[in-house]
Amino acid sequence: MGFEKQELARRCANHLLPKAGMDGLMDIRMLDVGPGYAKLSMVVREDMLNFYGTAHGGAVFSLADSAFALACNTTGFVTVASGCSIEFLRPSMSGDELTAICRLSGDAGKSGIYRTEIFCSDDELVASFTGRAHRTSTPIEF
What we know:
- This protein is an alpha+beta fold.
- The chain has a single domain (3-139), classed as Thiol Ester Dehydrase, Chain A.
- Helices cover 25% and strands 43% of the residues.
- The chain is built from three helices and six strands; from the N terminus they run ααββαββββ.
- The protein has helices spanning 3-16, 21-25, 57-72, and strands spanning 29-34, 37-43, 77-88, 97-108, 111-119, 125-139.
- It has a six-stranded antiparallel beta sheet with strand order 1-2-4-5-6-3.
- The protein is globular.
């Protein structure tokens, strides 16, 4: 991985993250970023629980979606989701720290497939997310 690509990924992340209002509301933190890669975390709070007392699927999805959005916007061009899905494997509870790791799985032209795995603090897989992205010709303006 070239220094230039890593630096571009960091510049994109540092420019875009402050604009992500939902991430701020959910206290989502960036742990690492690189070309086609992002690692984010979030602590499940009481206000993120469903009526069964486990993390609401929307909260878990939002963490995965944020990692996906960041990973696919590391090239310097505006990239948007064109589809995604999530599979929930186990519940998480209030106080659990969730970590989402997203990686580019494959791309062709302006389309890319990204896989995000969400782990609980005990390294158990909580959910698996797949996102399809479309890279536009519009540069990210810093």
